Amino acid sequence: MLPASAGTLQAGSRAAPAAQSAADPGPRASKCAKEARRSQGRPLAGALFASTIFAGREPEGHVALASYIGGARAPELARLPAEALIDIARAELSDLVGSRGVPVVTRVRQWPRGLPQYGLGHGRLTDVLTGLEHRRPGLFVTGNYLSGISVAACLTQAVETAALIHAFLDRRGRKAGVVRPVKDATGAAGIELVRGR
Question: End-to-end alpha-carbon separation of the chain, Å?
Fold first, then answer.
């Protein structure tokens, strides 16, 4: 996988009084995603309507948005000064979803090595790695390079790999623990190992 520079802008604004505000973007969010994908030349790589995804994380009457700029297609954009990134994000969101107004708060984060990008031939590499598992019983390969870089994909694969390890040890008569998915009080997902006897 090849890293790419990335810049993230998080902004909080007062919600528009219109019936369809940025807090409930509805079809506009889908238009934003389709438009950004269709127009390779857009500086906005993606946007999250954080108020919609994570309710209650912003003061009443406000919305929270996260904009992603740069990435593999335009790494030089991520290196721009914070004010320039804010201007780009505001212009893109205005054009794509009709966002208006000045953000009440903004935070810009810049990563010189952003999200990994799968390069040409990545499928062959994953085939080789998974083939090793079949040829070498007891070898287990896991990681974001196999089935996706999202937290959800990594957790899913971790749980599946842990279950494979457990089954492998059980077949050999070893008392392994039991791995099961759990959620903590905040709803965050994870895994728990209950030790065997």
Answer: 41
